[in-house]
Amino acid sequence: MRANDQVAAALAKLVLLTQLEDGSAQSFRTRAYDRAANAIRALPEDVSTLDLAELRAIDGVGDSTAKKIREYLETGHMKSLDELSAKYPDEFVAMLRVPGVGPRTAITLRDKLGIESIDQLREAVAAEQLRELPGLGAKTEEKIGTAIDKLGLAGKDRRMPIGPTLRIANGLVEDIGAIDGVSAVRYCGSLRRFRDSIADIDVLVVADGADEAVDADEAAGVDEAVDAAVADARESIQVDVRVVEPDQWGSASLYFTGSKEHNIALRQRALARGWMLNEYGLMDEDTVVASATEEDIYRALDLDFIPPELREDLGEIEAAAEGNLPDLVDVDDIRGDLHVHSTWSGDGRSSLEDMVAAAAGRGLDYIAITEHAEDLSINGLSRDQVAEERAVLDELRGRYPELAILHGSELNIDPDGGVDYDAAFLAGFDWGVASVHSHFDLPAEKQTQRIITAMENPAVSVIGHLTGRKLGRRPGIELDFDAVLDAAAATNTALEINSHLARLDVPADLLIRARDRDDVRYTISTDSHDVTEFANIRWGVQNARRGWVQRSQVVNTWPLADFLAWAG
DNA sequence: GCCGTTTTCGGCCCGACTGTTTTCAGTCG
Question: Does strand B come within 7 Å of the CB of A76?
């Protein structure tokens, strides 16, 4: 694990322990540690190389936390963390994961009933002991009991991969939008910010006349219809719905989209101007300064519009204040798709002819057909098959003169960084994607080296789905990302941003870490295996946006001639 | 614990909901 992640994890644990110590999740100390943890996690530099003064220079890290970090880096321990850990063992801290149990309740349970773990808590609920405690009652006891039984299904930290969540959310938006009296609907929350895992779906609805007493019946009807529309989805994920008035669309969207940290920073900015910001509007006493659109509110706060994908309080507010937001890529900017399979690959589902027709139909200027290569035993193309496909492509080029068709290959990076075929054969391809498809468990050093070796191969123009992760299923390989970035720049090899919702790879968290590296190039491609998957490009674009990737860094936004000149 | 177009001391985002209350504490987002 990266030193930054280790330090952030230690500070995150300190947050939990301090919540218990202070009896509040909102104590200033707790929030300070939390802020520091986030800052360290998002820091592009390696935290272990920073001295005390450099640590203090980080926004959110002061004297005390800087010393704790140095102590941790030098000794592997933090005295205050060790002391609190002894006082609050992991078993006890785990009780905070139960919905309804916060720091106060946890302490009360221990002081009055001697409860030290979730198991003991379950027993106390069964024995109806909780209802005797001050501030608790039978209802709370029952709620906690139910929450424990569903833990894992409904725990505070349960998250779902974005793919299935998006499908559910898009269905909800469609169903709710069709309800009589609903004039606008959108999903918000971390889904709109395009995080790759989601805890709940937040849906914002505008219902005509929701605010007028005369239309109370109609408003109630909308509420009922909305409830019915989300009932099924609630079987699989938490769904929060909020119905608002039309003139609150902007402030409610902002509030509901978050992130929490972004909202807090915006509210502080409002306070500095003598205003107050909440979900109902940006207010000057009783006067509404702005509320109808998010654009209005940002403008009133002297900020450029901040796209949802950037709203994490990772510097976007400062950038917006200075007019320095990154020039993000849009779906319409994408001119080519550089990672495409067909049934020539064993796992392809649409014919080559159909794939090319679909690409042309989408108005793309260029595509690279990149079937699996021979070392992928089940799916890969033999040399003879490569030659056959090339002949077919020649014929297709005649049929689609507006579409430049490159013949590429998706090569397999072996454990030592070698790829399929031989140098002479590789030279026959127009384009080379190289990807990891095996040996996911090698140590980071070895993984990093195999990627770098592949980059040094002249036949390799881009590394496909860098980490090989499958969201919710496979974690992805360990690697030294900074070394990979250095090699990418040095060898002029792009990094692919894979658009498939199960991958979204390079992960946005890594892209953010690379945001100051304008020497790194990217492709955004679909890795399509059938004609429907070309539409996935929008997810790759959103992932790139979340990663602060600049439009100019994405080579397949470039005109064909520029792209070909770069690709050599 | 952090920080400064209001501050080196005195503030620190805002509101809903629930359940326990007789005016509010705790939890959650």
Answer: no
Q: A214 falls in which pLDDT band (50, 70, 90)?
A: very low
The pTM (predicted TM-score) of the whole model is 0.90
Residue A102's SS3 state is coil
Q: How far is CA A67 from CA A39, A61, A74, A77, in A?
A: 15, 10, 11, 12
Q: Which helix (H) or strand (E) holds A206?
A: strand A200-207
Q: How far is the CA of A279 from the C1' of B15 (A)?
A: 8
Strand B nucleotides in reach of protein CB atoms, 7 A cut-off: 1-3, 5-6, 11-15, 18-21, 25-29
Measuring from the CA of residue A65 to each C1', which nucleotide is nearest?
Answer: B1
Q: List the structure tokens of A502.
A: 């199960």
CA–C1' A536–B28 (A): 34
Q: What pLDDT score was predicted for residue A217?
A: 54
Backbone angles phi, psi at A432, to 5 degrees: -130, 120
- pLDDT tens per residue, range A35-84: 999 889 888 889 999 999 999 999 999 999 999 999 999 999 999 999 99
Cβ of A349 less than 7 A from strand B: no
Question: Which of A206, A277, A280 has the alpha carbon at shortest distance from A243?
Answer: A206
Residue A405: pLDDT above 90? yes
Encoding tokens for residue A64?
Answer: 């005390």
Which CA distances in Å does A255 have to A71, A122, A250, A261?
38, 36, 9, 11
On whether the CB atoms of residues A118 and A148 are closer than 8 A, the answer is yes
Q: Residue at minimal CA–C1' distance from B6?
A: A272
Residues 261-320 of A with CB under 7 A from strand B: 263-264, 267-268, 270-272, 276-279
Q: For residue A278, what are the β-bridge partners?
A: A281
Please state, in angstroms and as integers, the Cα–Cα distance from residue A146 to each residue in A98, A127, A246, A419, A437, following that order: 10, 14, 37, 54, 43
Distance CA A102, CA A544 (A): 36
Mean of per-residue pLDDT scores for chain A: 92
| Residue linked to tokens 């990737």 | A549
pLDDT of residue A530: 95
Alpha helices, DSSP H, located in A345-382: 352-361
Q: Where are the beta strands (DSSP E) in A361-479?
A: 366-372, 404-412, 431-435, 462-463
CA angle A457, A381, A494 (to 5 degrees): 30
Determine the distance between A417 (CA) and B28 (C1') in angstroms.
Answer: 49
